[in-house]
Amino acid sequence: MKNSRDELTSVLARLAQLEATNKQQCERITALEEIVASQLGILPLGVAESTITPKEAAHELGVSVPRVSQLIKSGRLRAVRVGGRQRVDLQSVAGLKS
Protein backbone atom coordinates (compact mmCIF):
# COMPACT_ATOMS: atom_id res chain seq x y z
CA MET A 1 0.00 0.00 0.00
CA LYS A 2 2.84 2.39 0.84
CA ASN A 3 4.45 1.81 -2.55
CA SER A 4 1.20 2.67 -4.35
CA ARG A 5 0.82 5.79 -2.22
CA ASP A 6 4.39 6.85 -3.07
CA GLU A 7 3.73 6.27 -6.76
CA LEU A 8 0.54 8.36 -6.62
CA THR A 9 2.36 11.14 -4.80
CA SER A 10 5.04 11.07 -7.47
CA VAL A 11 2.43 11.23 -10.23
CA LEU A 12 0.71 14.17 -8.54
CA ALA A 13 4.01 16.00 -8.22
CA ARG A 14 4.75 15.44 -11.92
CA LEU A 15 1.27 16.68 -12.87
CA ALA A 16 1.84 19.82 -10.83
CA GLN A 17 5.13 20.39 -12.68
CA LEU A 18 3.44 19.90 -16.05
CA GLU A 19 0.66 22.29 -15.08
CA ALA A 20 3.19 24.97 -14.11
CA THR A 21 5.11 24.46 -17.35
CA ASN A 22 1.89 24.61 -19.37
CA LYS A 23 0.86 27.83 -17.64
CA GLN A 24 4.24 29.42 -18.42
CA GLN A 25 4.01 28.32 -22.04
CA CYS A 26 0.48 29.75 -22.34
CA GLU A 27 1.68 33.06 -20.89
CA ARG A 28 4.55 33.15 -23.39
CA ILE A 29 2.20 32.38 -26.29
CA THR A 30 -0.19 35.11 -25.16
CA ALA A 31 2.68 37.60 -24.96
CA LEU A 32 3.84 36.62 -28.44
CA GLU A 33 0.29 36.95 -29.81
CA GLU A 34 0.12 40.46 -28.37
CA ILE A 35 3.46 41.43 -29.91
CA VAL A 36 2.53 40.08 -33.34
CA ALA A 37 -0.93 41.63 -33.23
CA SER A 38 0.57 44.95 -32.22
CA GLN A 39 3.03 44.81 -35.12
CA LEU A 40 0.15 44.05 -37.50
CA GLY A 41 -2.05 46.75 -35.99
CA ILE A 42 -4.78 44.30 -34.98
CA LEU A 43 -6.19 43.12 -31.67
CA PRO A 44 -5.03 39.80 -30.17
CA LEU A 45 -7.44 36.88 -30.18
CA GLY A 46 -10.16 37.24 -27.57
CA VAL A 47 -9.52 40.92 -26.85
CA ALA A 48 -11.79 42.25 -29.60
CA GLU A 49 -14.78 40.28 -28.33
CA SER A 50 -14.39 41.20 -24.67
CA THR A 51 -13.32 44.84 -24.85
CA ILE A 52 -14.36 48.15 -26.35
CA THR A 53 -12.63 51.46 -26.95
CA PRO A 54 -12.79 54.19 -24.31
CA LYS A 55 -14.96 56.21 -26.72
CA GLU A 56 -17.42 53.31 -27.00
CA ALA A 57 -17.38 52.90 -23.20
CA ALA A 58 -18.12 56.63 -22.80
CA HIS A 59 -21.09 56.30 -25.15
CA GLU A 60 -22.39 53.22 -23.30
CA LEU A 61 -22.09 54.93 -19.93
CA GLY A 62 -23.32 58.34 -21.08
CA VAL A 63 -20.13 60.07 -19.91
CA SER A 64 -17.13 61.77 -21.54
CA VAL A 65 -13.95 59.98 -22.62
CA PRO A 66 -11.93 61.81 -19.92
CA ARG A 67 -14.44 60.51 -17.35
CA VAL A 68 -13.84 56.97 -18.63
CA SER A 69 -10.10 57.57 -18.11
CA GLN A 70 -10.81 58.67 -14.54
CA LEU A 71 -12.92 55.57 -13.93
CA ILE A 72 -10.08 53.39 -15.23
CA LYS A 73 -7.49 55.14 -13.05
CA SER A 74 -9.71 54.82 -9.99
CA GLY A 75 -10.18 51.08 -10.64
CA ARG A 76 -13.93 51.29 -11.20
CA LEU A 77 -13.44 50.22 -14.83
CA ARG A 78 -11.01 47.50 -15.90
CA ALA A 79 -8.89 48.14 -18.98
CA VAL A 80 -5.95 46.63 -20.82
CA ARG A 81 -3.35 48.19 -23.05
CA VAL A 82 -3.01 46.62 -26.47
CA GLY A 83 -0.44 48.00 -28.86
CA GLY A 84 -0.23 51.21 -26.87
CA ARG A 85 -4.00 51.73 -26.88
CA GLN A 86 -6.45 51.15 -24.07
CA ARG A 87 -9.34 48.72 -24.34
CA VAL A 88 -12.09 48.72 -21.72
CA ASP A 89 -13.48 45.45 -20.39
CA LEU A 90 -17.12 44.99 -21.47
CA GLN A 91 -18.15 43.24 -18.24
CA SER A 92 -16.70 46.12 -16.28
CA VAL A 93 -18.82 48.59 -18.27
CA ALA A 94 -21.94 46.47 -17.80
CA GLY A 95 -21.27 46.26 -14.05
CA LEU A 96 -20.96 50.01 -13.78
CA LYS A 97 -24.17 50.57 -15.74
CA SER A 98 -26.24 48.48 -13.33
Task: Summarize the structure in words.
With 98 residues, the protein is mainly alpha-helical. The protein is 70% helix and 11% strand. It contains five helices and three strands; from the N terminus they run H-H-E-H-H-E-E-H. The protein has a three-stranded antiparallel sheet with strand order 1-3-2. Helix 3 (54-61) crosses helix 4. The chain is elongated. The mean pLDDT is 84.
| Proportion of residues in β-strands | 5-15%
Number of helices: 5
Structural class: mainly alpha
Task: State the major sheet.
Answer: 3 strands, antiparallel
Biggest β-sheet: strands ordered side by side in the sheet: 1-3-2
Quick check: average pLDDT? 84
Number of strands: 3
Rg (CA only) = 21 Å
* Beginning-to-end CA distance, first to last residue: 57 Å
What helical percentage do the residues reach? Answer: over 70%
Overall geometry comes to elongated
Following the backbone from N to C, one meets helices and strands in this order, namely: HHEHHEEH
The unreliable regions are: none
Topology:
Elements: H1 2-40, H2 47-50, E1 51-52, H3 54-61, H4 65-74, E2 79-82, E3 85-89, H5 90-97
Antiparallel strand pairs: 1-3, 2-3
Helix pairs in contact: 3-4
